[in-house]
Amino acid sequence: MSETRNGVPASQAVADGEENPYLLGVYAPVGTEIVADDLEVIGEVPRDLNGVYLRNGPNRRFAVPGRYHWFDGDGMIHALHFENGRARYTNKWVRTAAFDAETAAGHGLWSGVMEDPAGNPFGNGHGLGLKDSANTDVVFFNGRLLSTWYLCGTPMSMDPLSLRTLGPENFLGTLTGDFMAHPKVDEATGELFWFDYGPEPPYLRYGVVSPDGKVVHTTEIDIPGPRLPHDMAITENHAVLMDLPLIQDQEARRRGRYRIHFDRELPSRFAVLPRKGDGSQVRWFEAAPGYIYHVVNAWEEGHEIVMDVCRVKDPQHQPRITHPLARMLAYLRLDAQLWRYRFDLRTGTTREGPRDDDNTEFPMVDSRVVGRRNQYGYAVHIAREDTLLFDGLVRYDLHTGARQDHRFGPGRWGSEAPFAPRDGGTAEDDGYLVTFVHDERENRSEVVVLDAADLAAGPVCRILLPQRVPTGFHSCWVRADQLEQAR
Ligand SMILES: [Fe+2]
């Protein structure tokens, strides 16, 4: 095991006088970047599991005065590389422009989303003066890993094995504007689909990147005002974007603040357009007001587009606890359920309804079925705690609605768990789910590997890690054949 000390002690990160739970325990930032390959394994690492599990998340390097929001932390990628029955752990901060500026200064320069951004050095392309930390998702495209930011920023290109930041990704100079957190990659065509949103017109732009990594299409999507779309969907021929009634508060914006509110008087609206269609070709589908962070998958079925999502049950419910940070805590206590939309292209009507009522989120499918009719979706189960914690994994059979569960056990909290196909596998669920789990009682993190077809059977193996992996955001699985492409 080699170790380099690049960071600051985690203790400094919480030395701002706050009892902020998102800086403590399973959320506390780690201050070191390590590579570790002599890992203790309980069970046996499957030899037919080859590729790398990558997970992004907030990991503040420098404390700054003011309130800390979980979303403020600097992006850090944690990775476990599986190769022929062996496993190697690596973690690295994403070297964004802001991270480099703070590193050069030796202290924090950006305040968080809950404070006035007026004194911050720079923001994103939309004049939002917040730190673009690239802390939200990791997406593999065209041989590179892209780390992305939820408020739209500069995608950072990274090496998927060393986690070295290669630089800002501008798609050979063709990217204009900013880039969303959850672009969609169609592995059959090699294309990438994305949007960009902001507080000034055009409020929403949509685009396509060709398999050789150039933006080849962009169009403006006409929506009535600034929105906060988080995710999108593709099908074989279409893209689906959202106009949901979660709205940036313009009064707060005039005061230089960033606030959002949910308008129950407005419908949810879904823009369906041809993949390379123009904004004028959008067909709008209306549905009940709601908010959606994440799409499970979408596909075409006859004259309908089917889209499965995790739909938030009550987008702005009242905080149930009294705490100076109650608003953030309530907002982060995700309460979502599996929900299906059917958009009828013939009649222009929407059908919608729940497929489950339990609180599951951070959905994943095999990356090869994105945009195609698939049978299985996997999600984390949200724990009944005051902070956002994942106490298990759920597998949904999207055809039948059947469900399987795995719970990590008391005091054990997981991460988003991508599907990792087994070498030579043919069935859609022939493979594994891979997740980081932090055991609070033993104060130790590990990687848990489960059989995707049989979650109830419990871990195939557990790989113990020499460093804590804080609870974080999104992940991906990059197969060995894709890593070959990266080399
Ligand atoms: Fe997300």
From TrEMBL:
Annotated InterPro entries: Carotenoid_Oase
Keywords of the record: Dioxygenase, Iron, Metal-binding, Oxidoreductase
One Pfam family of this chain: RPE65
Residues that coordinate or bind Fe cation: 182, 230, 294, 474
Sample GO molecular function, one term: carotenoid dioxygenase activity
Needed cofactors: Fe(2+)
Cofactor note: Binds 1 Fe(2+) ion per subunit.
Enzyme class: oxidoreductase
PANTHER family listed in its UniProt record: BETA-CAROTENE DIOXYGENASE, CAROTENOID 9,10(9',10')-CLEAVAGE DIOXYGENASE 1
Descriptive protein name: Dioxygenase
Organism field: Yinghuangia soli
